[in-house]
Amino acid sequence: MKRILPLILALVAGMAQADSNSDYRAGSDFARQIQGQGTGSIQGFKPQESIPSYNANPDETKYYGGVTAGGDGGLKNDGTTEWATGETGKTITESFMNKPKDILSPDAPFIQTGRDVVNRADSIVGNTGQQCSAQEINRSEFTNYTCERDTMVEEYCTRTASITGDWKYTDEYREVTIPHSQFRFSMNGLKLVFSVTAPVTGTVESASLSVYAAFFFLNSRYTFMNTTFNVGLANGQSDTYPLSGATGLQVTQGQVLTGSGCTANGNCLPHGNGDRKVYESLVSGASTFTLKLRMKVRDK
């Protein structure tokens, strides 16, 4: 019996040694099969095929100067520009600018939250350790300030000025000449109608009408400025006719002074051919009227 037991042990040891050798060989064969696969996978990896939107040279590479590089000024400048002009920066800035102001009041939410923490301090950290003990501490002080300012009021003052003192009217005499170019001519039937506009306001001291004839006036009879007179000039003649009826006449600046008349001592020639010739001569400026006035103008 003692001889059989060593034999059995020897057989068991031999079988165990055989199993260990086969496992080693299997492991060694597997190691040889996968040898180099890890390195090959890394070396043969193509990120553009595996990573969506992969870019080997993105715009951001200009900011990378290596692991030992310091800060990049371009990154800071571009970031500042993007913040000022980019939509994201604008949105953040607008959100900050349009954020409602915090109300500085004892009833403000953040003040109430702080008070709630103080009131619940014992439930938060109270009695959580041997060194923790409840103590009464009051460090919150609230002061209300009231600002007053005057309401802006706009008021208007009026004052009435009056002129006092003495003044006197003075009379000034002016010589006024109204040339032919300021006369206006028309015909009323067979009668000649002419007019001028008074240039000043005042009293007529004297007046006269000078006439030059480029065509026969055919003993025309005119009434002008309260005066009636006859013009019998022939071709190339001239004369001056006093307007005695105008003396003392009050005229106003802008007032129209009108006269009229007809040939043949005011009776008008038959068919009106002569009157029309006189009218056409005056309108063309061949024959002329010139009015001279001596005016008394009152001034203060």
Descriptive report:
Keywords: Plasmid, Signal. This is TraN protein. With about 300 residues, this protein is α+β, with helices and mostly antiparallel strands. It has a domain at about 180-300: Immunoglobulin-like (Sandwich). Helices cover about 30% and strands about 25% of the residues. The protein contains nine helices and ten strands. The protein has helices at about 5-35, 35-45, 45-50, 75-85, 85-95, 110-120, 120-125, 265, 275-285, and strands spanning about 170-180, 185-190, 190-195, 200-210, 220-225, 225-230, 240, 250, 255-260, 290-300. Strand 2 and strand 3 (about 190-195) form a beta hairpin. Helix 4 crosses helix 5. The protein is elongated, with a radius of gyration of 62 Å. The mean pLDDT is about 80.
**CATH architecture term of the domain at 182-299:** Sandwich
Tally the helices: what do you get?
Answer: 9
The count of DSSP E runs of length 2 or more, i.e. the number of strands, is: 10
End-to-end distance: 170 Å
Organism: Shigella flexneri 2b
Protein name: TraN protein
Keywords: Plasmid, Signal
Signal peptide: 1-18
SSE layout and pairings?
Elements: H1 4-34, H2 37-43, H3 47-50, H4 73-85, H5 87-97, H6 109-119, H7 121-124, E1 170-178, E2 184-188, E3 191-197, E4 202-212, E5 220-224, E6 227-231, E7 238-242, E8 250-251, E9 256-262, H8 263-266, H9 273-284, E10 288-299
Antiparallel strand pairs: 1-10, 2-3, 3-9, 4-7, 4-8, 4-10, 5-6, 5-9
Helix pairs in contact: 4-5
Protein name: TraN protein
Keywords: Plasmid, Signal
Organism: Shigella flexneri 2b
Give a brief description:
Helices cover 32% and strands 23% of the residues.
